[in-house]
C-alpha cells in the first residue's frame, strides 16, 4: 500500500514539475506567428507536394503572408480554396483553369537498343548510354513519375506507360520534373486533343522506331483553322490557348501521333462535342 | 613501408590475356569518323567542309572554347560529311567523315623532326595545344590546359601515370615496354614546361618488366624517380596516385595543382613527344582489345576515328558476346553495339561472354564499401538515400567527392548498383545547386 | 549479333555475396553446436534443429505474405535460428524454441522489412522475448547437470564419457526435459552468489559445496577455485550453460577463422573481450574488493565468446566505421560487466548487445569516416 502511495505521489509531482516547465518554455520561447498563416493552412490543400517551390504548405503560407509567394504558385488549390485564401490575404485572384498532366508518348514499337541492367528508375536509366529505348525522346516506362506523384493520381498501365487519373491529378507538376525526358507536361483539363509524341528525331528515324510517332509532316499545322499547331524540330505542339478541341488534326495525322483522349476521360469524342456546339451556335 | 593510399580493392586483373602481345597496326580504315566530342569541355568546331581534300595530320576542327581540343585528320582523303554519328556515350554526336584514299600523305608541316630542347616553354605549350592532345588515360582533359596552371599555383612535381590499374587493359604497359624513349622524352618535355620540376613515374608491381626498363632508362635523369606501387585499384586515379607517391591529399573539390602537382598518363607523354619533337598531332593511339569474348586479345595502334567493328573482327569476336566495354571493366562504358568510331580516350575494349543480371538486395551494412572507398565516403548511406529519392541529402554525405571508381559496387555482397545511384544523386544535387 | 547488355560501370563483381557470408558464419558455428549436443545430449540438438526450421519457416511465411521474393537461400534466417538456439538453455521446452525462433524472425527482422532493415540482432530479440515471456520458468534458472559429470572426474577418459552421455540421452529423453530434480548453477551465477554471500557465516551452497566465512581479501579467482570451476572445462565446453556457449575454445576458433576470412571485423570481438576482461578485473564483485576480479574466468564463461564473435559482429546491427565499431564494442563490454556484476541477471551479453544495437544509428552519425582531402580546420 505504502509503495503504491509513494509511487503515485512521486510520479504526480514529477508530472506537475514537467508540465510547469513545458508551460513556462511555451511562454518564454513562443514565436510570434502571423495569425493569417494559421488560417491559410486551414484552407490550403495540405498535401505538402512542393509544387509551389516551398518545402510544404506551411512554408507557402508564410511566403504568402510575407508577400514573396503568389497564390497562383499553388496549382493544387481548388478554386474555392483559392478564393478563401485570397479573402484571408485580402487580395484578388483571377480565375485559372485547372491543369492536369498529359503523357506525350504512346511508347515505341521496336525493341529497345540494348538490354538494360541497373536501377529501375528512369533518371538512372537515362544516364546509362542515353537510355535504352530506340526513340531518345519517348517514355522509358520505369515509373519514376508514378513514384513522384504525391496524390496517387498516376499508375503504370499494362501498355508500359504511365496513366493519369484525371480526378486525382492536381497539376502539381512533380511528375513533369521527375521525367528525365520531359515526356509529361501540364495542359488545361478541358483540352482533350494532345500530341501523344515527344520525338524530335527526323521523321524517318521516328518512323523506324515507332508506328505512331510524330514525323513532322506538318499536315496538322496546315489543317488547323485556329492556328493552334506549330511543328518545330519534327514535332507538333498544340497551343492550348488557341485549341478548341475540334479534332481536325486527329483526323489528318497519318501516324496517330495526335490523339483524342476524351474516351479515356469518360467524355464523348472531342470532334462530336465540337460539332454539337457548332450546330447549336448555328 | 610501401607507398599507397587508403581503401581500394584488388580484383583479378586478367592482364595475362594481352600483356605479352606486341603492339600491332590496326587494319587501315576505308573511312574514319572523327568525333567533335572526344574530350571534356566544349565540342570542337570543324574547319573543313564536305568535299574538301585533307592530308594526314591536317587540322580539321579547332578548339571550341578554352577547355577544348583540336582534331586532325588521321588519313589523307576527302571529307564526305559532317553528321551525327554513334558515340561511346550513347547519344549521337557530330563527326567528320573522311574517306581514306590510302595514300597516307602527310600535311606538309607534319612529320618533320624538331629539336624540342631548343624551343621555349610557350612554344612547346602551343605545339601541344595545336596537336589536340588530351589525357589519354581515359579522362580526356585537354593537356595544354592542364599544363598551364594559373601563376598563383606553385607546381613542384610532375607524375607520370603508368599505373594502369584497370583490369584487362595493357595498352600503357606495352607502350612503356616498346617505346620507353618516346614516353620518357615526352615526360621530360612536360617537366620542362612545368618549370623543370621533379618527376615521378608510378608503375604498379604487376608490371615488373616495365618498371625495370623505365628505371634503367631514367637512370641518366637525376630528376626522375621511378616508383613501384603495390597493385591496388584505383591507384591510377589522380588523387590516389598523388597520395600514394607524394603523400599529399588533394583537398575536397580541388585539383592536383592545389597540392603542387600535375599528373599525366604515359600515353599522353608519348603524344606530347610526337607533337614537340616530330610535329605529329594526335591521330593515333594504343588500344587493347581483350576479354573472353575475343579469340586473339591484342594491343593495336589505332587511328582516331576508325570504326571498331573491323578491329574486333581481326581479333576474332566470338559469337554470343554479351557485353562490350569501352575502357576497363571498373569505369568503362558498356556499348550497345560495335559500330562505334574510336576516339582519343579509348584505352581499350573488353568483350565479355557473360554479364549476369544482379538482383540488388537490401544493404546489410557490412561496411565493405565504407572500408574500401578510396575517397573515405559512405557509399552504403548514399545508396540508401538515392534509393529513397532523398537526393539532396546526399550532398551532406559528400556525394560530389565521389570519383565513381566503382570499388563500392564491386565489393558489395548485396550487389547494389551503388555507383549508378550515386550518379543520379550527383546529377540532382548539381541541378539543385544550379537553380540557386 | 545478339542484343548486348548495357549497364553502368563497374562491370566486375567480387565473388562474395550475402549467401556466402551467411553460410560461412553458419559453418563456423557448427562445431560449437556439435559440442553442445555432445555435452548436453540429443535433446539439445533437437531443439537447435527445431529453432532453425522454425526460423526458416517463419521467414518463408512472412515473405510469402508480403509477396516479396523468398530469400531463404541466403542463410540469414537459418543463422538467426541457429544463434537463437545457441543462447538458449539445452533443456528449453520445444514450444519455447518455436516461439523464440519465430519471434526472432518476426519481431526481430521481418517487421522492420527484412534483412538489412532490422535494428536489433534477431537472435537476441528472440532470446529477450523468451526471457520476458518465461521469466519465472524453471528452465531459465535451473540448468541441467551435465551428464556423467561425476564419472568424468572419476576418470575413464573424457571422450568415452561423452559417448556414454549421448547414449544415455537417447535412452532417456524424458529425463532430459525434466531436469528440475538435478540442476546446477551456471558458473557465472555460482561465482556471483558466492562473492555476494560467501563472506557471511551462514554462507551459501554452490553445487554441493558450502562456501562460507571467506576471509577478507579473497579474490574472485579464489571463489572460482572454491566453486570447483576449471578454466580448462570452460575452454573445452565441459560447463553448464546454453547450447552453443559451452565451448569458448571452439567459438574462438570459428571467430578467428571469420576474422581471417575478413567476414567479421577484428575490432569488435577484440575490444569487447578486452573491455570485459579489464573491467571484470578492476570492478568489485560482491564483497570482493577492487582489482580482485578474474579476467580469464569472465572471458571464458557465459555467452561472451559467442556474443563477441557472432552476435555483436552482426553486420546489420553494428556500426559502419572502424571508429564506430570500437565505440560499439566498448559499450557492449562496459554494459556486459555492469549487468553481470551489479544487475539482476547473471549474464549481460544479450542485453548489452541489444542496448548497443539501439545506439548504432547515433554512433554512425558521430563516427563518419575521414574523407579524402578533407580540409584540416
The Rg value of chain C, from CA coordinates, equals 22 Å
| Topology of chain A as a string of helices (H) and strands (E) | HHHHEEHHEEHEEHHEEHEH
Largest interface: B-C, 67 and 43 residues
> SS-based structural class of chain A?
alpha+beta
Helix fraction of chain A, binned, reads 25-40%
Number of DSSP strand runs of chain C: 5
The secondary-structure element order of chain C is EHHHHHHEHHHEHEEHHHHHHHH
Regions of chain C with pLDDT < 50 over 5+ consecutive residues? 147-156, 170-181
- Percent of residues of chain C in beta strands? under 5%
Number of contiguous helices of chain C:
18
Coarse shape of chain A: elongated
CATH class of the largest domain in chain A: Alpha Beta
Largest sheet of chain C: 2 strands, antiparallel
In terms of quaternary structure, the protein is heterotrimer
Q: How many domains of chain A, as an integer?
A: 3
Compute the number of strand runs of chain A: 9
Mean pLDDT, all residues of chain A: 89
CA radius of gyration of chain A is 26 Å
Question: How would you portray this structure in words?
Answer:
The complex is a heterotrimer of chains A (282), B (436) and C (377). Chain A folds into three domains: 36-89, 3-methyladenine DNA Glycosylase II, Chain A, domain 3; 98-187, Alpha-Beta Plaits (2-Layer Sandwich), CATH 3.30.70; 190-282, 2-Layer Sandwich (Alpha-Beta Plaits), CATH 3.30.70.20. In chain A, 36% of the residues lie in helices and 12% in strands. Chain A contains eleven helices and nine strands. Chain A has helices spanning 2-28, 35-43, 57-66, 79-89, 122-127, 144-148, 174-178, 203-209, 219-223, 248-252, 270-281; strands at residues 99-103, 115-117, 154-156, 162-164, 184-188, 193-195, 229-232, 235-238, 258-260. In chain A, the strands form four sheets. In chain A, strands 1-5 form a two-stranded antiparallel sheet. In chain A, β3 (154-156) and β4 form a beta hairpin. The longest helix of chain A is centred in the first third of the chain and has 27 residues, at 2-28. Chain A is elongated and about 90 Å long. The N and C termini of chain A lie far apart (94 Å). Chain B is of the alpha/beta class. Among the domains of chain B are: 111-278, NADH-ubiquinone oxidoreductase 51kDa subunit (Rossmann fold), CATH 3.40.50; 368-435, no CATH class. Chain B has twelve helices and 17 strands. In chain B, the strands form four sheets. A six-stranded mixed beta sheet of chain B has the order 1-14-13-17-15-16, with helices on both faces. In chain B, strands 2-8-7-4 form a four-stranded antiparallel beta sheet, with no helix packed on it. A four-stranded parallel beta sheet of chain B has the order 11-10-9-12, with helices on both faces. In chain B, α3 (171-178) packs across α5, α4 (180-193) packs across α7 (266-278) and α10 (379-387) packs across α12. The longest helix of chain B is centred in the last third of the chain and has 18 residues, at 418-435. Chain C has two domains: 18-143, no CATH class; 187-238 and 247-364, no CATH class. In chain C, a hairpin with a 2-residue loop joins β4 (204-206) and β5 (209-211). Mean pLDDT of chain C is 85; it is low at 147-156 and 170-181. Classes of the chains: A alpha+beta (282), B alpha/beta (436), C mainly alpha (377). Chains in contact: A-B, A-C, B-C. β2 (115-117) of chain A pairs parallel with β1 of chain C.
Amino acid at each position: 500500500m505504502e509503495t503504491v502511495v509513494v509511487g503515485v505521489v512521486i510520479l504526480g509531482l514529477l508530472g506537475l514539475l514537467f508540465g510547469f516547465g513545458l508551460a513556462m518554455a511555451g511562454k518564454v520561447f513562443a514565436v510570434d506567428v502571423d495569425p493569417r498563416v494559421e488560417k491559410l493552412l486551414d484552407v490550403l490543400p495540405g498535401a505538402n507536394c512542393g509544387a509551389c517551390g516551398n518545402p510544404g504548405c506551411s512554408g507557402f503560407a508564410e511566403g504568402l503572408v510575407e508577400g514573396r509567394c503568389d497564390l497562383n504558385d499553388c496549382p493544387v488549390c481548388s478554386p474555392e480554396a483559392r478564393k478563401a485564401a485570397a479573402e484571408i490575404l485580402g487580395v484578388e485572384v483571377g480565375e485559372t483553369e485547372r491543369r492536369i498532366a498529359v503523357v506525350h508518348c504512346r511508347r515505341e514499337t521496336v525493341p529497345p537498343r540494348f538490354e538494360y541492367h541497373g536501377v529501375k528508375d528512369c533518371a538512372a536509366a537515362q544516364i546509362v548510354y542515353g537510355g535504352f529505348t530506340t526513340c531518345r525522346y519517348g517514355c522509358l516506362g520505369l515509373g519514376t513519375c508514378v513514384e513522384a506523384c504525391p496524390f496517387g493520381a498516376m499508375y503504370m498501365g499494362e501498355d508500359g506507360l504511365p496513366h493519369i487519373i484525371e480526378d486525382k491529378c492536381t497539376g502539381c507538376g512533380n511528375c513533369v520534373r521527375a521525367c528525365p525526358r520531359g515526356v509529361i507536361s501540364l495542359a488545361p483539363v478541358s483540352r482533350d486533343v494532345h500530341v501523344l509524341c515527344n520525338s524530335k528525331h527526323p521523321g524517318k528515324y521516328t518512323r523506324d522506331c515507332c508506328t505512331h510517332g510524330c514525323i513532322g509532316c506538318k499536315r496538322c499545322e496546315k489543317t488547323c483553322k485556329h492556328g493552334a499547331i506549330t511543328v518545330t524540330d519534327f514535332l507538333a505542339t498544340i497551343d492550348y490557348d488557341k485549341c478548341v478541341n475540334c479534332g481536325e488534326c486527329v483526323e489528318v495525322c497519318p501516324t496517330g501521333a495526335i490523339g483524342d483522349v476524351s474516351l479515356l476521360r469518360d467524355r464523348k469524342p472531342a470532334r462530336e462535342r465540337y460539332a454539337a456546339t457548332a450546330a447549336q451556335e448555328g | 613501408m610501401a607507398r599507397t593510399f587508403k581503401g581500394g580493392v584488388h580484383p583479378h586483373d586478367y592482364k595475362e590475356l594481352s600483356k605479352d602481345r606486341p603492339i600491332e597496326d590496326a587494319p587501315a580504315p576505308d573511312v574514319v569518323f572523327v568525333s567533335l566530342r572526344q574530350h571534356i569541355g566544349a565540342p570542337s568546331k570543324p574547319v573543313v567542309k564536305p568535299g574538301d581534300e585533307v592530308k594526314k595530320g591536317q587540322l580539321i576542327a579547332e578548339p571550341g572554347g578554352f577547355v577544348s581540343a583540336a582534331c586532325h585528320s588521321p588519313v589523307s582523303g576527302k571529307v564526305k560529311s559532317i553528321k551525327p554519328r554513334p558515340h561511346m556515350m550513347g547519344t549521337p554526336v557530330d563527326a567528320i567523315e573522311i574517306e581514306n584514299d590510302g595514300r597516307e600523305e602527310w600535311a606538309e608541316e607534319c612529320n618533320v623532326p624538331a629539336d624540342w630542347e631548343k624551343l621555349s616553354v610557350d612554344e612547346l605549350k602551343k605545339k601541344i595545344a595545336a596537336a589536340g592532345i588530351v589525357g589519354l588515360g581515359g579522362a580526356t582533359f585537354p593537356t595544354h590546359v592542364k599544363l598551364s596552371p594559373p601563376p598563383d599555383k606553385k607546381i613542384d612535381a610532375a607524375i607520370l601515370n603508368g599505373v594502369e590499374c584497370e583490369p584487362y587493359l595493357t595498352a600503357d604497359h606495352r607502350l612503356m615496354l616498346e617505346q620507353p624513349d618516346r614516353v620518357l622524352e615526352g615526360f621530360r618535355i612536360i617537366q620542362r614546361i612545368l618549370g623543370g620540376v621533379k618527376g615521378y613515374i608510378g608503375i604498379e608491381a604487376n608490371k615488373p618488366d616495365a618498371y625495370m626498363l623505365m628505371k634503367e632508362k631514367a637512370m641518366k635523369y637525376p630528376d626522375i624517380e621511378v616508383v613501384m606501387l603495390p597493385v591496388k585499384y584505383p591507384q591510377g586515379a589522380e588523387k590516389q596516385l598523388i597520395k600514394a607517391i607524394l603523400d599529399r591529399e588533394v583537398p575536397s573539390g580541388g585539383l592536383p595543382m592545389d597540392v603542387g602537382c600535375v599528373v599525366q598518363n604515359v600515353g599522353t607523354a608519348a603524344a606530347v613527344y610526337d607533337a614537340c619533337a616530330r610535329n605529329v598531332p594526335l591521330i593515333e593511339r594504343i588500344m587493347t582489345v581483350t576479354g573472353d569474348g575475343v579469340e586473339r586479345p591484342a594491343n593495336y595502334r589505332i587511328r582516331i576515328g576508325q570504326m571498331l567493328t573491323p578491329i574486333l573482327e581481326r581479333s576474332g569476336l566470338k559469337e554470343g558476346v554479351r557485353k562490350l566495354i569501352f575502357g576497363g571493366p571498373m569505369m568503362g562504358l558498356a556499348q550497345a553495339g560495335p559500330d562505334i568510331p574510336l576516339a582519343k580516350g579509348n584505352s581499350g575494349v573488353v568483350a565479355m561472354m557473360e554479364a549476369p543480371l544482379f538482383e540488388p538486395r537490401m544493404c546489410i551494412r557490412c561496411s565493405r564499401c565504407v572500408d574500401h572507398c578510396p575517397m573515405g565516403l559512405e557509399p552504403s548511406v548514399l545508396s540508401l538515400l538515392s534509393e529513397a529519392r532523398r537526393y539532396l541529402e546526399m550532398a551532406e554525405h559528400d556525394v560530389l567527392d565521389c570519383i565513381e571508381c566503382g570499388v563500392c559496387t564491386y565489393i558489395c555482397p548485396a550487389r547494389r548498383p551503388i555507383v549508378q545511384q550515386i550518379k543520379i544523386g550527383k546529377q540532382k544535387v548539381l541541378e539543385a545547386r544550379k537553380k540557386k | 549479333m545478339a542484343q548486348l547488355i548495357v549497364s553502368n560501370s563497374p562491370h566486375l563483381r567480387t565473388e562474395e555475396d550475402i549467401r556466402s557470408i551467411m553460410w560461412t558464419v553458419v559453418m563456423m558455428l557448427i562445431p560449437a553446436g556439435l559440442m553442445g549436443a555432445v555435452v548436453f545430449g540429443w535433446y539439445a540438438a533437437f531443439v537447435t534443429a527445431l529453432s532453425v526450421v522454425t526460423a526458416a519457416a517463419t521467414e518463408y511465411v512472412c515473405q510469402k505474405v508480403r509477396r516479396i521474393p523468398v530469400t531463404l537461400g541466403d542463410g540469414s534466417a537459418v543463422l538467426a535460428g541457429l544463434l537463437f538456439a545457441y543462447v538458449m538453455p539445452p533443456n528449453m521446452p520445444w514450444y519455447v524454441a518455436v516461439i523464440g525462433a519465430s519471434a526472432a524472425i518476426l519481431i526481430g527482422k521481418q517487421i522492420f522489412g527484412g534483412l538489412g532493415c532490422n535494428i536489433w540482432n534477431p537472435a537476441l530479440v528472440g532470446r529477450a522475448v523468451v526471457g520476458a515471456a518465461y521469466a519465472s520458468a524453471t528452465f531459465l534458472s535451473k540448468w541441467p547437470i551435465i551428464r556423467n559429470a561425476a564419472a568424468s572426474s572419476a576418470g575413464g577418459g573424457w571422450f568415452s564419457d561423452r559417448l556414454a552421455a549421448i547414449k544415455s540421452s537417447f535412452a532417456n529423453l524424458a529425463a532430459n526435459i525434466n531436469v528440475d530434480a538435478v540442476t546446477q548453477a551456471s558458473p557465472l551465477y555460482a561465482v556471483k552468489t558466492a562473492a555476494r554471500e560467501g563472506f557471511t557465516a551462514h554462507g551459501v551452497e554452490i553445487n554441493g559445496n558450502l562456501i562460507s566465512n571467506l576471509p577478507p581479501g579473497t579474490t574472485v579467482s579464489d571463489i572460482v577455485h572454491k566453486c570447483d570451476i576449471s578454466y580448462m572445462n570452460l575452454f573445452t565446453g565441459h560447463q553448464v550453460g546454453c547450447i552453443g556457449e559451452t565451448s569458448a575454445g571452439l567459438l574462438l576458433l570459428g571467430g578467428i577463422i571469420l576474422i581471417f576470412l575478413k567476414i567479421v571485423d577484428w575490432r569488435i570481438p577484440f575490444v569487447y573481450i578486452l573491455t570485459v576482461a579489464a573491467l571484470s578485473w578492476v570492478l568489485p564483485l560482491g564483497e570482493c574488493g577492487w582489482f580482485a576480479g578474474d579476467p580469464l574466468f569472465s572471458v571464458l564463461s557465459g555467452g561472451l565468446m559467442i556474443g563477441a564473435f557472432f552476435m555483436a559482429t552482426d553486420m546489420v546491427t553494428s556500426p559502419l566505421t572502424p571508429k564506430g565499431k570500437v565505440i560499439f564494442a566498448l559499450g557492449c563490454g562496459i554494459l556486459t560487466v555492469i549487468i553481470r556484476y551489479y544487475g539482476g541477471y547473471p549474464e549481460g551479453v544479450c542485453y548489452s548487445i541489444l542496448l548497443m544495437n539501439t545506439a548504432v544509428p547515433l554512433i554512425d552519425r558521430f563516427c563518419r569516416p575521414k574523407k579524402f582531402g578533407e580540409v584540416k580546420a
